[in-house]
Design a protein that fits this description.
heterodimer, A: alpha/beta, five-stranded parallel sheet, 5 strands, B: alpha+beta, seven-stranded antiparallel sheet, 3 helices
Chain lengths: ~120, ~160
């Protein structure tokens, strides 16, 4: 399966990929985008099976990306991996179609818990 | 114009958040509070991130010397000791991400006192910052494992004149 990691921090993209391996998802193809706009264009071109997106990014943030995808009828599985962890943000994520919100800092166990239902 | 959260509340939240930051994000066993002060220290590098709400404007800063910034970045990336040092741009990105993680935790801790706060996007600067009269400052010198850092809270009240 193909996972798209969207984060403006190259460091965090590396950490997400590392955590995916640690959580047992190393066999999946992982691609990257550095902001929501780049991700949107990438997804329209070749839809991944799962998008893991940060929330706060320049150009187009994660929520804007999710809304744009749903607005275009793109129903790709989508989860946030973000420093935003308040109940309000979690509710906003769910209301807009995100399957989960993993708040930073995260563990491999959290990735296993949230991603297994999506990737299995 | 009070928002119910003073600068010490924010600094307390930062200190509280530093435990989880150190243990989960950095894989470090302990944090140590060395001291509290009211001025930013001299430093080689620092990452700042804004938390802005209806009634207040906060900048959170993580400051350290050059070696401390390199070590923070290497620790976040779980690098082996024998691996080559990171480039400056990589250090900046990593320390900025640490600031981002910290700010998110602080926002969650402080949500009860100020739910209107939004996170900005972090920046990394070399050297110190110029503090203005409109700013209140609180700083905590800490050790994350063996890494010396200063956490800085800069608070501007929206009713203050420049």
């Amino acid at each position: 399966m193909n996972i798209l990691v969207v984060d403006d921090s190259k460091t965090m993209r590396m950490i997400v990929k590392r955590t995916l391996r640690q959580a047992g998802f190393g066999g999946h193809q992982v691609s990257e985008a550095s902001d929501g706009k780049e991700a949107f264009e990438s997804i329209k071109g070749s839809a991944p099976d799962l998008v893991l997106a940060d929330w706060n990014m320049p150009e187009m943030n994660g929520l804007e990306l999710l809304k744009a995808l749903r607005g275009d009828g793109i129903d790709v599985s989508f989860g946030f991996v973000t420093s935003e962890g308040t109940s309000e943000m979690r509710q906003m994520a769910a209301e807009n179609g995100a399957l989960f919100l993993i708040s930073k800092p995260f563990t491999a166990e959290t990735f296993q818990e949230k991603l297994t239902p999506v990737l299995s | 114009m009070s928002d119910g959260a003073n600068i010490q509340d924010w600094l307390d939240a930062v200190i509280e958040a530093s435990d989880e930051l150190a243990s989960v994000a950095l894989g470090l066993d302990n944090t140590e509070l060395i001291g509290i002060k009211e001025a930013p220290p001299e430093n080689d590098g620092s990452a700042y991130i804004a938390l802005v709400g209806e009634k207040t404007s906060i900048q959170l800063g993580i400051l350290s010397n050059k070696e401390g910034c390199q070590l923070m970045a290497r620790t976040l990336l779980a690098m082996e000791p024998e691996e080559e040092d990171l480039e400056e741009s990589e250090v900046a990105d990593a320390v900025s991400e640490i600031a981002n993680i910290l700010a998110g935790q602080v926002k969650t801790i402080m949500a009860q006192k100020d739910a209107s706060v939004n996170l900005g996007i972090p920046i990394f600067v070399h050297g110190g910052i110029e503090v203005t009269e409109a700013m209140n400052i609180a700083a905590a010198d800490m050790k994350l494992g063996s890494i010396p850092v200063t956490f800085l809270v800069l608070k501007t009240d929206s009713g203050a004149s420049a």
